[in-house]
Amino acid sequence: MTEFITICSAGIITAFAAVVLKKYSPEISVLTAIAGGIIIIISVLPKLTTFISELNEIGELAGIDLSYITILVKAIGICIAGKFSSEFCRDNGFSSLASKVEFASKITVIIIALPLYSKIVSIAAELLKVT
């Protein structure tokens, strides 16, 4: 919990510094925001590895194929990266570009999840044959 408070504090401090710097040097303001975002992302990466290992363990206990867990983790990563990128675009006044990034991330998740859709359809077909 204290790590989360530290991360939130770093975000607020970075945002404040970027706003102050924007008056004097907009370029450095943008770089400050990028650097702060990268630092925050790097600080949560160790937690992400813990999440992935726990997810794999749950998948093994439930007898779920590891490829499906991999698809889930990739989809989550795409969603996070897409949201981060689109918010960055939106914060810098490029809302049209942000919409395109969000759309692309949604399409990418759909494409990555295609094996799951085919598995669901095959399970549904098997269930219909049984009854």
Order of helices and strands: HHHHH
Instruction: Estimate the helix proportion, in percent.
Output: over 70%
Overall tally of structural domains? 2
Ends apart, CA distance between termini: 50 Å
Fraction of residues in β-strands? under 5%
Summing up helix and strand content along with how strands pair, one would put the structural category as: mainly alpha
Chain-averaged pLDDT: 88
Shape: elongated
Q: How would you characterize the largest beta sheet?
A: none
Give the key terms.
5 helices, elongated, 92% helix, 131 residues, mainly alpha
Quick take:
The protein has 131 residues and is mostly helical. 92% of the residues lie in helices and 0% in strands. The chain has helices at residues 2-24, 26-62, 66-91, 95-112, 114-130.
How would you describe the overall organization of this protein?
The chain has 131 residues and is mostly helical. It has helices at 2-24, 26-62, 66-91, 95-112, 114-130. The longest helix is centred in the middle third of the chain and has 37 residues, at 26-62. The mean pLDDT is 88.
Give the SSE map.
Elements: H1 2-24, H2 26-62, H3 66-91, H4 95-112, H5 114-130
Helix pairs in contact: 1-2, 2-3, 3-4
